Amino acid sequence: MRPGPTRLYILYMQDETPPRPTVSTTELRDNISEHLGRVRHRRERVVIEKNSKPAAALISVEDLALLEALEDRLDVLLAEKAVRARGARVTLAEAEKLLGL
Questions:
Q1: Half-sphere exposure of 34 toward its Cβ, with a 13 Å CA cutoff?
Q2: Does the pTM of the predicted model rise above 0.70?
Q3: pLDDT recorded at residue 99
Q4: 1-59 in CATH: which number?
Q5: Distance CA 43, CA 66 (A)
Q6: Are 49 and 22 in contact (CB under 8 A)?
Q7: pLDDT in tens, 12-44
Q8: What does DSSP assign to residue 21?
Q9: Is 50 helix (H, G, I), strand (E, B) or coil?
Q10: pLDDT at residue 32 in the model
Q11: Domain segments of the chain: what residues?
């Protein structure tokens, strides 16, 4: 059974990505508490613009933790792939030497 036009419209609306709120550095400076509240309490992500170009983003600490966890997982996956491709293991001492630690 095919969905009617109303359902198609709803599906279309769900697929749209809402625009991210943006603020200038001046606006951020003048109203930092308001923007921190948006991020902290409503979990919004705010793009900070410098000279009308995106320069940074203000995100919640929960989003930061998630981003860091995803980066860590990606690092592990890439390291595992490199080990499989190389076919050899590196000792801790060798890794420290390679990384200059």
A1: 7
A2: no
A3: 80
A4: 3.40.1620.10
A5: 13
A6: yes
A7: 555 556 678 899 999 999 999 999 999 999 999
A8: P
A9: strand
A10: 95
A11: 1-59, 61-101
